[in-house]
Structures are given as structure tokens and as C-alpha cells.
Design goal:
disordered N terminus, alpha+beta, about 40% helix, about 210 residues, eight-stranded antiparallel beta sheet, Chemotaxis protein chec, globular
Amino acid sequence: MRGERGGLPLNDLQIDALREVGNIGAGNAGIALSQMVNKKVDLSVPRASILPLASVPDLVGGPETPVAGVYLKIIGECAGSILMLLEKESAWSLAGLMVKGGLSSEEEVMVKRSALQETGSILSGAYLNALGQLTNLFFKPSVPGFAMDMAGAIIDYVLVDLAATEDYVMVVETDFRISGIKIQGHLILFPNIGTLAIILERLGVPLE
């Protein structure tokens, strides 16, 4: 059985292991998000896969799709980087739930960007904690960077900043609903060379 969108060939056990990471990460993220916005958060069953690096822009509709991106480097036993992508409308809807009124237009934009940066850091941390819990590996995220741009431009920036990375990335996609607002999120792990094999081995489903 193959991963979604023509990704790395994976067997059923490997796909189930990735989904378990997604389920635990989404649960942690949902709790954290609920506390941030002080509202109930409903989330869909996450989709997890390992995809070719080149297919990442297609996750959000292509390289010219406007998105918000939060980018963190990962240090620890398994180094790499993690990128959270939110469709632009989803990002501003989410930020609007966290920002109170009474601000000037300029102040509101700054506060919303800060809120999204914090959200990306918390959600990325939730998924990394889930991955660490299941693999018994240590993942420490850096201070996050934030950008609002076309998906292709953000991913190009990430690729320039990467060291020796795998040809494949680990992707967890999930949809959140808060007060009827749908927020589509994509967590993309860019593992350094050798990291992906270590993660899958620790999950008990090594690459053949």
C-alpha cells in the first residue's frame, strides 16, 4: 500500500503508526488551541503520510496559494525542521478568534501575526511531543519564524535554510472547527538525513 499522493511506499503497519502520531498530536493540539481561544475545538481524524519533498506546495493548492507559515528548527537526537501551513483565510479566521477589538488596523495586523506565530509554535510542539512520546526520542523546537506569502515562496525559504535533508517529508493534515469556523492545517516535518529511518524504526515499522 502506498502513502497518499504517490508518497513513499508504506505498508499498512507504517501508515497506522503515522496515523497514531497524528491522532495523539491532534488531540494535544486541540486541547492547547481550546485553551488559547477559550472555545470548544472539534477536530477531524488527521491524515498522515510521507510525501516527496517536491509535492509539498500541492498540499495547499499549489505554489501560488496564499498561506501563513510558521517555521521552526528541531534540535535533539533527530534533527530537522517543522513547518505549519495554514490557508490564508483559515489563518486570519483563527487569529480573529484570539484578538480582541479596539485596536488600530496596524496594531491588529501585528497582534494577529504574533498570535499565529504563537499558535504555530504550540501546535508544532504538540505534534513533536506526540512523536517523542511514541518514539522515546527528544525533539526540541527553536523560536518560531512567521511569514504570510505564497506557499512556494515560503517553502523555497525553508529549503534554502535546510541542511542535508531527506527527499521525503512527514505530513500530518487535520481540520479544526471552532465556533463553526473551519481551519485547515498542515504540519510538515523536514527530517535531516537518517532521521526518517530512525523515527520509523522507533515506531516499530522500519523501512525495508
